[in-house]
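PROTOCOL LOG
Step 1. Enter all chains and additional molecules of the complex.
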Amino acid sequence: AQTVTQSQPEMSVQEAETVTLSCTYDTSESDYYLFWYKQPPSRQMILVIRQEAYKQQNATENRFSVNFQKAAKSFSLKISDSQLGDAAMYFCAYRSSQGGSEKLVFGKGTKLTVNP
Amino acid sequence: DGGITQSPKYLFRKEGQNVTLSCEQNLNHDAMYWYRQDPGQGLRLIYYSQIVNDFQKGDIAEGYSVSREKKESFPLTVTSAQKNPTAFYLCASSMGFPYNEQFFGPGTRLTVL
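Step 2. Run joint prediction.
Step 3. Record the structure below.
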């Protein structure tokens, strides 16, 4: 079974600075998808960024980018120019590419605090 | 606006009672999911459905039941057999395989009194 580990329960960053959240996963599959979700205090889960394992290029969405290291099974999220609205829980998630295996496997999350 | 709605936002239940959480989507998505979130934990899958009239158990299905009579609706019943039902419940939907993004509703907070 696949597992996802987020080793940083809490992180903090100064506004306008850069922060990196770590995620490692365990799988025997060669093709899969990885996601970062944001959960603000409203508790609505919001998709931040996704990465297909077959793509070597790291995904980027505005101020959010990932460092995908397939051999190391590592998928970190970098937030640049941090804003107060980035404060939230961040969850890393894994999804198999095999048909019928549609569930997301989540890590336990990292609470990000942004200091003004 | 397209989206996923969950109701109610807060739900209180006495021990021994069954309760049903509503989840509706107007995104025309084929697949729908129910997750449970406990403090300090990630989300865990309860049930999912890829098409109407079909659903599969997730990792923690015991004490829960679902139905999928319409594409738009995927209600979750928390039965009295669920020993620790107090949690935050999130519903999600996706277009189904091979599309992989799941979109989430705002959630229901269930408290057992």
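Step 4. Note key features.
Residues 12 and 110 of chain B are 6 Å apart (CA to CA).
The two ends of chain B are 36 Å apart (CA to CA).
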